Amino acid sequence: MNKTTLFRTTPRIVMGPGALAQLPDEVRLLKARKVLLVTDPGLVEAGVADRVRDLLDAVGIAHAVFSDVEPDPRYEIVLECLDTIRKEESDLVVALGGGSPMDIAKTAAMMARNEGPISQYFGVDLVPNPGLPTLMIPTTAGTGSEVTPIAILSDEDEKLKKGIVSGYLFPHTAILDPELTLGLPPAITAATGMDALIHAIEAFTSVNACAMTDLLAFRAMELLYDNIRTAYANGANLEARSAMMEGSLLAGMAFANAGVTAVHAFAYPIGAEFHIPHGVANTLMLPHVMRFNVLGNVPKFAEIADAFGLVVSDLDELGCAEEAVACIERLADDLRVPRRLSDFGVKDEDIERLAQGVMKVTRLLANNPRVIELQDAQEIYRAAL
């Protein structure tokens, strides 16, 4: 049956090797008087933040820097960034980094024009007013946050990650320069690349998928699967890095509209409580959630084998779907991404509590191709233990 769909994405996307040089022109288009650059200590230490500052200085664009972004950032980091926005009287927020700086930038820019505590905006379409404009410069091929209306923050009290979803969180501009990813260590390349691949898989199999998101997600799966091993093993390969950044972008466009599913719902509790990096947490849970989900849409999961270029002509749809799951496990092993929860200190006695946390992530479970009950969640966690 035909259905009405809505597709949205970031209005301006500048992409390609050397694209960072376009930053001053993009800032001028936004008529910004003073920029706040939001980044993390690692990028400051590596000198990447100085490259951005030098571009702004060269054309006389005033700017300040907020560099206290932490991995899996807490609410408090948003408030600190918001204080800096107000103190510096910034009217454009530029994020440089992975998902954490981008999420902090998007949320702080939103809070600059909206009253009250951050907690009241967790959920879907609860933000009443547009925030300050934002410009994203990703330095990993992973989160796709540069083209999503989503920001994820950690709730330390509930040991959960929570999301704000609002059209007002879409960045105005994204600058994607694969040269910024050339220095990424192999482990980060693997974790972020797997995160992007999981975005594509989940968008493709979401109950909200449509022709547009399927097109983007399928191409993203092709690009990411074909290039992630090369980018991991030879990080200086610009062609592979460019393909990974394009794949991450397309996956972000797809899941921004179709949504991610239960893999992320399972990753949030273990990430928040055991501080497992997001891409690793997703990779840990992916094959186990996929095996559970296959029966919810066998044809779609079978198509994943096609996207991966697997030779499966002698298999039926269920066999193709199962081969796609096995292929994911081989890929994680090749990339040396841990695949057991026990490697991070998770014990059997933690499973019931973690499963209860999964059941709270109703926003994502609603997108899943198969209904998940509490007992299912426990069994999926135990399979990953």
Q: How does this model look, in words?
A:
The chain has 15 helices and 9 strands. The protein is of the alpha/beta class and 385 residues long. The chain has 2 domains: 170 residues, Rossmann fold, CATH 3.40.50; 199 residues, Dehydroquinate synthase-like - alpha domain (Dehydroquinate synthase-like, alpha domain, Up-down Bundle), CATH 1.20.1090. The strands form 2 sheets. A 6-stranded parallel sheet has the order 1-9-6-4-2-3, sandwiched between helices. A 3-stranded mixed sheet has the order 5-8-7.
**What is the CATH superfamily classification of the largest domain?**
Dehydroquinate synthase-like - alpha domain
Strand-residue proportion: 5-15%
The number of helices is 15
Biggest sheet record: 6 strands, parallel
Task: Trace the largest sheet across and list its strands.
Answer: 1-9-6-4-2-3
Order of helices and strands: EHEHHEHEHEEEEEHHHHHHHHHH
Helix content: 40-55%
Q: Mean of the pLDDT scores? A: 96
CATH classification class of the largest domain: Mainly Alpha
**CATH T-level topology of the largest domain:** Dehydroquinate synthase-like, alpha domain
- Give the overall form: globular
SS elements, strand count = 9
